[in-house]
Structure formats: structure tokens, C-alpha cells
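Input.
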Amino acid sequence: MKRILEVLKVSTRLGLTSFGGPIAHLGYFHEEYVKRRNWLDEKSYADLVALCQFLPGPASSQVGIAIGIQRAGLIGGLMAWIGFTLPSAITLMVFAWVLKGLNIQHAGWLHGLMIVAVAVVAQAVWGMASKLATGRLRSTIAILSAIATLLVPTSMIQVLLIIVSGIIGWKFFEKNASQEIQPIKIPISQKTGITFLTLFFGFLIVLPLLRLGIHNQGLAMFDSFYRAGALVFGGGHVVLPLLQRDVVPTGWMTNSQFLAGYGATQAMPGPLFTFSSYLGFVSKTFPNGITGGVLALIAIFLPAFLLVAGALPFWNTLRSRPGFQSALAGINASVVGILIAALYNPVWTSAIKTPYDFCLALIAFGLLMIWKLPPWIVVIISALGGIVISALA
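Output.
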């Protein structure tokens, strides 16, 4: 019990203070879990990060869950998720509640939040492309993935692109010889791991079938958010187009409401997937917004927990196989392309309408990339800039 409470305490503090997105979160985790508390060594931490980057879902949250499981079993993993997730999820639901009582359709600050989303996603594209889409083949995979995602805007095309890109990487990228690897001690049996993986794929198959036969808004929402959490590689930014195509055309919310929440999420600490709590609250699925927010939050994170708990017992074997990193390189290049497509649609097309909008987006991008300001400060500046642009129009 002592370890469980310790995991909850540490992860909650990280959930309150970890600004800057998934890559920054991994830095915070390294400082807290490896350097300060010595819960695991450098190599074990790097291996857990590699596993969670290979799996679909929110990589930083999955690393936190994995460390919680390693430290205090399955309950420890659950406490790690609760602590890291709830602070920003609650704040975003409060934000959604405030927005519901306002006529925000043409608010200048709302437009500013939509514009800052352009800068944030552009920063993510820049950072990921410089590391994951280098060289001719990787760059080509990224470009073709972007084109395919834009021309065939469905969630299944993303899954197909990731599979094909993984095969290309496995086939054509250099395979490193297997090295001597120190096993990670995981308090989960392989039998239990198989149970979790079965649940993961079972939900993925059964939920869409139930949705076809049972016309229930709550079930439809759970299916949409579960699928988004289960099929997205690359974290919070890449899930944007998947969610947008599920919640806006269905009439659950307007595109302005969607992008306002996405902009506000940039100012929050913790995982970007907590954006789901805002979407669930704002949606017209439940009269009580809290019910929708909690349901969407659980649905989008459930695949991450099932995958981590299912994959950890097999990770020591998987990571020792030649060709694993090669397939991962192809997948990562495809993720960059999917993110490029998201930058254009819906982010750019919804936010950039005038030269003033583009100028504000450039300012926000410069503050993030050059001046290295925290995202929450850039969000506030952009909201004020949106008010100024509205006054000038």
C-alpha cells in the first residue's frame, strides 16, 4: 500500500507541473523516476520509452503507467494514470462548463486559441520530422503518408499507412544485430498479459458492431474515443484529425468549440489526451457534461492501459529481435506525414483566414521555437492577439 500511495503522490505532482507536451513529459519522468528516486536505471527507462513509442496511444502516459506497474503492480499503474491525468482533465471540464454559458462563436480570444493550435502543431511537425523523417526514404514515406491522409480522410487509412510503413521499414532499413539486453523485472505474468491484449482487441472489434446494432449516444461516444486511443501512433497531436472527424460531423460540437478546446489544452500540464474530457463535456451526448467528460476520458485512455499491461510481460523478448527498430523507423516516418496532414486540415484551414492570422501564428511559432516560452504563456498571448485582430477587423 505504501508504494501505491507513493506512486499516486509522485504522479499527481507531475500531473500538476509537467508542461510542454509528450517529449517534455519524458524529461520530467527521467528527472523524477530515474535521477531523483532511482526507481529504475537509465537503460530500463530507455527501454520502456522505446516500447511506449512503438505502441499506439499517448506515449508519455504509457511510460508513466509502465513505471507505476513496475513499481507497484497493476494498481500502481492505475494510480500513475490517475495522478498524471486528473489535474488537467478536471481543469478542461471546468473550461468547457464556462464556455457552455457563453456565446463564443465569434469571440476574438477563441480565434486566438485556434491560431495558437497552428503554431503548436507546426512545432510538433518540425521536431518530429527533424528526428524521424530524415533521409530520402523516410522523407518520402512522410510525404506520401501526408498526401494519402489528406486525399482519403478516414481513420482506417491511417491504420493502413502505419502497417505498410512498418513493413517498408522492416524490409528496407538496416537491421541492427541483437545486443546483450538486461531483462526488466515486470510483476505481471505472460498469461495475464495475454488477457489484457485480448481485451484490447476485443473492445476494438466488438464496440463498432454493438454501435451498429444499438443506437445509443453513450456507446457511440465510447467507441469513437476508444478507437482514437487504440489506433493513433504519435501521441496527442496526431489524434487531432481522428477526433475531429468523429465529433464535429456528428453534430456533437462545432469546429470552433473543438479548436478552442485544443488551444486550451496546450496551456495545461499533463497529457494531451485529456483533451477528450473537454470534448466529452461539450458534446451533446449527455445532458450532464461531467458524465460525457468522464466517459470520453476513460474510453481514450483504456487502450493505453490494456496495451501497456499486455505488452510489458513480452517486451524483453520483443526488443531483442533484429528488425524491430527498422519497422519502428518506418512507422515513425508515417506518423510525421499524418501530423503534417493534421497541420493543414483541420488546424490551418480553420484558423488562418487573413494575413493578421498568419502573422499571429508566426509570432506564436517564434515564441515556442526560438524564445522557448512555456506553451501556457504562448496560449495567453495568442488569445490576447486574437482579441486585437477581432478589434482591427
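Residues 2-175+189-392 form one domain.
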